[in-house]
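User: structure tokens for this one?
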Amino acid sequence: MLFLKTGLLVLSAALGLTAAQNNAPSSSITLQTHSLYPPYIDDDLQNRWFDFGGDAIINTNKHVRLTSNRPSQVGYLWSRLPLATLNFEIEFEYNVDGPSGHLFGDGFAMWLAKERASTGPVFGSVNGFDGLGIFFDTYDNERSHKHSFPYVQAMIGDGYKHYENDKDGSSTEAAGCEADFRGKTVVTKARLTYYKNNYLRLELQHEKEDEWTECFKIHDVKLPDQVYLGFTAHTGEISDNHDIISVTTKTLPPIAIEPKHQIPQTGKKPKSSSGGGGFLWFLFKMVAAAGLVGVMFVAYRVYDKSGNMKRF
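Assistant:
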């Protein structure tokens, strides 16, 4: 029975390893310095870790409204400290809405940039920035794009490249996706994951609760060593309410470097993420381990019939 016992030990070890992987405790840490929740302000009407400015309005029960549904507004929300961690995840809940109609805009942006709290023409912040800008654009300026709006777009700034408003940033786009995030009844969220010297990924929730879709994934993104986390918005002749409801920033443990064969997704609808991969891998391990046990058992029976094994 030695072969059979060995096979059972292999099977048990495989199942135990899978269970341990599926239930491994997370080593991520929430960074209070870059997280924001209601009521947003303290007794002095300030926030210890964030600055608000421009036309931003704080409703302590609901949101930080970067711009109201009024023309020519600019509002911002910026962390006071740089984000000094190599790998991180930023998940934020937002809401973009206003009166029904065909014209609304212009949108809002999420930033990881070296310069903070300065207003400008790029969704309320400065042009020629150094770092990452992710633009939630609701208005089509050029009218000749192959994709529809609303549109989510990433731009990697080096301090010299300029975002072109009249072209909706098409000449400096690193990746993007169509995403109908405006005026939704479902909670709208975004989740940015960054591993230094590995990849940057943006996922969105805007169709169903707890259903995330991958907007884009880019390899070899190099951010400046010290970046500030920010959110800005602006309106022109047309307008919208642009609200930030909550922000949660976590550190992430290092992971293995991924192969760099993925092509950034540009101008396409986001792909739905699936949770089936882990189960299939678990099933594969079970089948492989069971097959190993079967082979060992057959070998044991054949060896036993040959009379070369002594019985006890």
